[in-house]
Amino acid sequence: MSLSRPNKPTALVLCFLIATVTLPLPPIHAAEHVVSRIELEEAVTAASEERSHNIEMVQSYLRSLPADALPPAMDSQKIEKAIAFLSDEELTRLAERVDELSADARGAGLSKGQIWLIVIAGSVALLILTIIAYNSVETYYY
After folding, report:
1. Rounded CA separation 53/95 (Å)
2. Does residue 14 or residue 7 have the better pLDDT?
3. Nearest-CA neighbor of 14 among 27, 5, 24?
4. How far from 73 is each of 6, 69, 70, CA to CA, in Å?
């Protein structure tokens, strides 16, 4: 039996296989992760706390509504249970809307400066009306 010389494509494949097996491979995984485990835990904890806060905010707003605020077909207990099934984005939008409604109800959307301006303008108007009334009474008696 004589050994024949391998043809060119077979020799190239054989050289490639030998090089692949003998050359050192770079590590498959990185030495350090892109995000550390601690950072990941903190992010998950923060997201969980934000979701819990949003759920509590929406539920407390619903509890604060008068009984006749919701249509009879809507059960407040079912609504409160359904809140937990909202996605994070939907819950965040709902919580922002509830916060806006609560702020409007608390101060009718007025800042402290605007409230002081209304109080001062009312006081000035009352003073002017008092002066006008005093002058009209004075001219009436004289």
Report:
1. 9
2. 14
3. 5
4. 85, 12, 8
Instruction: Tell whether pTM > 0.70.
Output: no
CB 86 within 8 A of CB 53: no
Q: Where are the alpha helices (DSSP H) in 23-111?
A: 37-64, 76-83, 88-107
Q: pLDDT tens-digit profile of 12-62? A: 787 787 877 777 766 666 566 677 888 889 999 999 999 999 999 888 888
Residues 6+ away with beta carbon under 8 Å from 91: 51, 54, 55, 58, 83
Name the DSSP letter for residue 4.
Answer: P
CA 68/CA 46 separation, integer angstroms: 36
Rounded Cα gap, residues 62 and 98, in angstroms:
9
